[in-house]
Design a protein that fits this description.
The complex is a heterodimer of chains A (about 350) and B (about 130). Chain A has about 350 residues and is an alpha+beta fold. Chain A contains nine helices and 22 strands. Chain A has a six-stranded mixed β-sheet. A six-stranded antiparallel β-barrel of chain A has the order 15-18-17-16-19-20. The longest helix of chain A is centred in the middle third of the chain and has 11 residues. The radius of gyration of chain A is 20 Å and the shape is globular. The N and C termini of chain A lie far apart (about 45 Å). In chain B, about 20% of the residues lie in helices and about 35% in strands. In chain B, strand 2 and strand 3 form a beta hairpin. Classes of the chains: A alpha+beta (about 350), B alpha+beta (about 130). Chains A and B meet through loops of A and strand 4 of B.
């Protein structure tokens, strides 16, 4: 039996195609994934992401704990600021990617992936220092509202004080409001926010956003939007067998100070010393067809890697992918689809940001 | 509920066939199939003149979700393909029984259609899938 989010009945009422995802029953689309994708690029869309696990961490020493647990450094956070980080195993493999918010002195909120939530929590508990409290929140829902008109839509539902605060909220910062915890973050490459609020309040907010003209969007559009934005998907583009250095996530590693002993650091330093064997790149298919995960890539007739995420990019009107290839592979590259080779162009992600094509 | 026209024949693998006045058979995928696949983004068409055995893969439809084979429910030779799908695969979503047709076959056996499902039979196939 799959778990239902507090918005399950709303998805059903809108005729969503429901699919199992990480133990949850989630909407894939509400009729057309491509229409939903375009709504987010052009106006505003909303996603039920209540399957993601919210973990609150409190106690004296929370910062010390997170500076050991996470590969990015929370020391740089000011209250209300967000940080994207990987959580690594001792081999430098990625256990999960997450967002960490500093809410106040020694008060943090982490948002982790649904598929890895149980393992993440076990890992955190295993490494937890005495005096720290870890709360896996089951009483909260989460809605992502994304697109150039997303913030305007949400601001319209807030009382004046909160509305003014959200209007002035900087990217990658969060705010406590009467609606709930609102962060100017997302997974689409557009402006927008993610709202964490009590389970009981989620259906009314969903209804109000629908009333305001925000398009309901499913996991399908979420995936094609994040792919165009060049954002990694855990389990596809990185996992516990790949390091951030091999997954296009070097920018999330905080090396200074050299004395900060985060889990996985020695392994990453060794990998850097001997040379990172594989690297991530973006690909654009030349010609027609669809790039998909696990299709093999060739250079000079030799297999040099494979696609980790691929699909049709509605904004580009062609297929794009993220891939992992040998560091010494020399373009031109070819992909094999159903036994035939097709040319692909190597590019630096993101493919699309704020509605504009960048490749 | 998806549309299942009375005047077509169907395969359990979700293709439809229509007999044309010249004896050729037009083939497409059903409304139910396109609904299951979601938005189509690419259709790989066969070469005109190619021969296919009954049950052979004769085309590929790729949606936002996945690539799916289209099977040739009866043996025959491809005499035409719907080239409009190369630039507008969404025609299969918009009009699965009309502008979204995939190919036309000259059947090896003119009575081959008799072995396929009628609308009532295909309705039962779809209903069984949904339960």
């Amino acid at each position: 039996m799959h778990r239902h989010t507090p918005l399950h009945a709303r998805h059903r009422a809108l005729g969503a195609r429901m699919v199992p995802f990480a133990g949850w029953s989630m909407p894939l689309h509400y009729g057309s994934q491509i229409r939903e994708h375009r709504a987010v690029r052009a106006a505003a869309g909303m996603f039920d992401v209540s399957h993601m696990q919210i973990v609150d961490l409190e106690g004296v020493g929370a910062q010390v704990f997170l500076r050991r647990l996470l590969a990015n450094d929370v020391v740089r956070l000011e209250p209300g600021q967000a940080l994207y980080s990987c959580m690594l195993n001792p081999a430098g493999g990625v256990l999960d990617d997450l967002i960490c918010y500093l809410r106040g002195p020694d008060r943090y909120r982490l948002v982790v992936n649904a598929a890895t939530a149980e393992r993440d929590l076990a890992w955190m508990h295993d490494h937890l220092d005495p005096g720290l409290e870890l709360h896996a929140r089951a009483d909260l829902a989460m809605l992502a509202v994304q697109g150039p008109e997303a913030l305007t839509g949400v601001i319209g539902l807030l009382p004046p004080g909160d509305a003014a605060a959200l209007s002035g909220l900087r990217p990658f910062h969060a705010l406590e409001t009467s609606m709930g915890f609102i962060a100017r973050t997302g997974y689409t490459g557009e402006d927008g926010c993610e709202i964490i609020l009590p389970v009981e309040a989620a259906p009314a907010l969903w209804d109000a956003l629908l009333q305001a003209g925000v398009t309901p969007c499913g996991l399908g559009a979420r995936d094609s939007l994040r792919l165009e934005a060049g954002m990694n998907l855990y389990g596809n583009d990185m996992d516990e067998t790949t390091t951030p250095l091999e997954s296009g996530l070097a920018w999330t590693l905080s090396w200074k100070p050299r004395t900060r002993a985060f889990i996985g650091r020695p392994a990453l330093e060794r990998q850097q010393a001997v040379g990172v064997p594989r690297r991530q790149m973006g690909l654009v298919l030349e010609g027609k067809g669809v790039l998909r995960a696990h299709q093999p890539l060739y250079a000079a007739g030799q297999q040099v890697g494979e696609i980790t995420s691929g699909g049709f990019a509605p904004t580009l009107g062609t297929s794009i992918a993220l891939a992992r290839v040998a560091a010494d592979a020399v373009p031109p590259l070819e992909v094999e689809i159903r036994g035939r080779r097709h040319g692909v162009r190597a590019v630096k992600p993101p493919f699309v940001r704020h509605g504009r094509i960048l490749v | 509920m998806s549309e299942i026209p009375e005047d077509l024949r169907y395969a359990e693998s979700h293709e439809w066939l229509r007999e044309e006045a010249d004896g050729s058979l037009t083939l497409g995928i059903t409304d139910h199939a396109q609904e299951q696949l979601g938005d189509l983004v690419f259709v790989e068409l066969p070469e005109v003149g190619g021969d296919y055995a009954a049950g052979a893969e004769c085309a590929v439809v790729e949606s936002v979700k996945a690539a799916s084979d289209v099977y040739c429910p009866v043996a025959g030779r491809v005499v035409a393909v719907n080239e409009a799908l190369e630039d507008a695969p969404e025609l299969v979503n918009q009009s699965p029984y009309g502008q979204g047709w995939i190919l036309r076959l000259a059947p090896s056996d003119p009575t081959a259609l008799d072995g396929l499902l009628d609308a009532a039979g295909y309705t039962r196939v779809v209903a069984a899938e949904d339960t």
